[in-house]
Specification:
alpha/beta; Rossmann fold; 2 domains; 4-stranded parallel beta sheet; 17 helices; binds pyridoxal-5'-phosphate
Length: about 425
């Protein structure tokens, strides 16, 4: 690590490592592709034309900057710290994922690639990728666990409407982890024209750093917006963590601001227990290697990857981005977990006090806000990333509330 003691923003090192995490654990056949990608990204990253194209599309296609919103009634109800929402749920396609997809696909176009592949779990990253591919007229193939194809029919339908081919993955247990493995295999066999667009800060180097850099627009805007609103930086940042991309995007531009506290919120499912009915890789897992990098993982005693459980399909990746593992071990960021039940409580709170129907993922972050805000002074500033909207989750929530809104879609999501 270049300058660990002076800065948290210099990582990864040239081997792609954040301390002892990250790296590039891939087969020899994959190595040349990864190296080409790294070289091209390093070049694009310092090219003002690349960022000019990003800025244009962020503004006119995605709808950035997203507002930084003072959640006044929520703040009053909690009775302590002043709470702001970073409104990334207002982006085109309803979440932060498109920030990163846009970056990778503009890079793919610069590299002359014509075929984009992606993995998806709940389908959100698949939909974002299919969207941007349609916009640019690129072929799009999305790998999705067969089990998830069954559970997430509305998103499968959306991807197909957008012109993508959805490939159900039956290897392994037919979930996100297996979809990612199949996408990596596809990449090796279709080298020339294919670009692999990963949906979170995971995978072999340079993906974790590249995805973070694209999502860092969230934190960059937040810095400017909070300076304008309050004339100073926030005291605490809070974000939900699946693989960790929306959180890394908010946190990264603040890593060297020592007085800004950073909290990542993992999915605690039914509780971080022995039965692993949760997705809290940092709070309930241990280090291992998955998808080309070393990081904290949910695994059994023999190192078999476990699937975990969360009410929120977008949080059930069995690992976490390697940079989070490093921030956890260095103590720069704190990681906590929130249960399904607590997240549902936060869902109701946001609807009722702010008129915002949130995705179940950021409800985990909000539930932690609701836990700590009442004990904090009124001049304590919290910024929480509202990283997705909840339209996709109303059937899940209805089921948990015992309400029957069943049309076709309700049953599909069941
Ligand atoms: C995919 C998704 C997540 C989880 O992914 P991260 O990489 O951890 O950000 C969280 N929230 C929403 C709304 C999502 O769509």
């Amino acid at each position: 690590m270049n300058d660990l003691f002076n800065s948290f923003m210099t990582g990864p090192d040239d081997k792609g490592r954040f301390g002892k995490f990250g790296g590039r654990f891939v087969s020899e056949t994959l190595m040349p592709l990864i190296l080409e990608l790294e070289e091209q990204y390093e070049h694009a990253k310092t090219d003002p034309e690349f960022w000019a194209e990003m800025d244009y599309l962020w503004k006119h296609y995605v709808g950035r900057p997203s507002p930084l919103y003072y959640a006044e009634r929520l703040t009053e109800e909690l009775g302590g710290a002043k709470v702001y929402f970073k409104r990334d749920e207002l982006n085109h396609t309803g979440a932060h994922k498109i920030n990163n997809v846009l970056g990778q696909i503009i890079l793919a176009r610069r590299m002359g690639k014509t075929r984009i592949i992606a993995e998806t779990g709940a389908g959100q990253h698949g939909v974002a990728t299919a969207t941007v591919c349609a916009k640019f007229g690129l072929k799009c193939v999305v790998y999705m666990g067969a089990h998830d194809v069954e559970r997430q029919k509305p998103n499968v339908f959306r991807m197909r409407l957008l012109g993508a081919e959805v490939v159900p993955v039956t290897s392994g247990r037919g979930t996100l982890k297996d979809a990612m493995n199949d996408a990596l295999r596809d990449w090796v066999t279709n080298v020339q024209e294919t670009f692999y667009c990963i949906g979170t800060v995971a995978g072999p180097h340079p993906y974790p750093a590249m995805v973070r850099d694209f999502q860092a627009i969230i934190g960059k805007e937040t810095r400017e917006q909070i300076m304008e609103a309050e004339g100073r930086l926030p005291d605490t940042l809070i974000a939900a963590i699946g693989g960790g991309s929306n959180a890394m995007g908010l946190f990264y531009p603040f890593l060297d601001d020592k007085d800004v506290g950073i909290i990542g919120v993992e999915a605690g499912g039914k509780g971080v227990n022995e039965k692993m009915e949760h997705c809290a890789s940092l709070t309930g897992g241990r280090p291992g290697v998955l998808h080309g990098n070393r990081t904290y993982l949910l695994q059994d005693e023999d190192g078999q990857i476990l699937e975990g459980h969360s009410i929120s399909a977008g949080l059930d990746y069995p690992g976490i981005g390697p940079e989070h593992s490093w921030l956890h071990e260095t103590g720069r960021a704190q990681y906590v977990s929130i249960t399904d039940k607590e997240a549902l409580g936060a869902f109701e709170l946001s609807c009722r006090t702010e008129g915002i129907i949130p995705a179940l993922e950021p409800c985990h972050a909000l539930a932690h806000v609701a836990k700590i805000a009442p004990e904090l002074p009124k001049d304590h500033l919290i910024v929480m990333n509202m990283c997705g909207r909840g339209d996709k989750d109303i059937f899940t929530v209805a089921r948990h509330l015992g309400v029957n809104i069943a049309g076709e879609e309700g049953r599909d999501l069941g």
